[in-house]
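Lab notebook, bench 4. Still working through the backlog of constructs that have no structural model yet. Next entry is a single chain of 132 residues. Request: give me the structure tokens for it.
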Amino acid sequence: MSVVGTEAAAGASLAVASPDAPAAAPVMTPMEELATLVAWGAAVFYEAEHGHNEKVRDYWDALHYVATSVSVGYADLFPRTMVGKIVGSVVMMVGPALAARALDRPQAPAPADPALLGKLDEVIAELRRTRT
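Model written out:
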């Protein structure tokens, strides 16, 4: 059971969400998040480095750099522009975590602690008593 605060015209009120209510679906799967980071990272890297870095001749060179920077960092080119360095840094910081999430098996939700749920029910009951 979760407690969600809402604003009402007469003042603050308390809305309680049902424990059986379905959780909001994620916007993207972890694999889609990783693919988006790599694809857009490569596009931005290409725009920043093309014309400034002789090893970035086309989008595929940029994609090779970004895709390898997610994991082992094996590429024979290095960013020369500030934007290219920022893209590389972000991909190297965020990429491994996204890759781990994309490749990890889904985990079962942790079982709820009955003592904690009982205490939360007591708190909600007390809040309802003070409202009336």
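Notes after review: The longest strand covers residues 2-8. The two ends are 21 Å apart (CA to CA). Flag for follow-up if needed.
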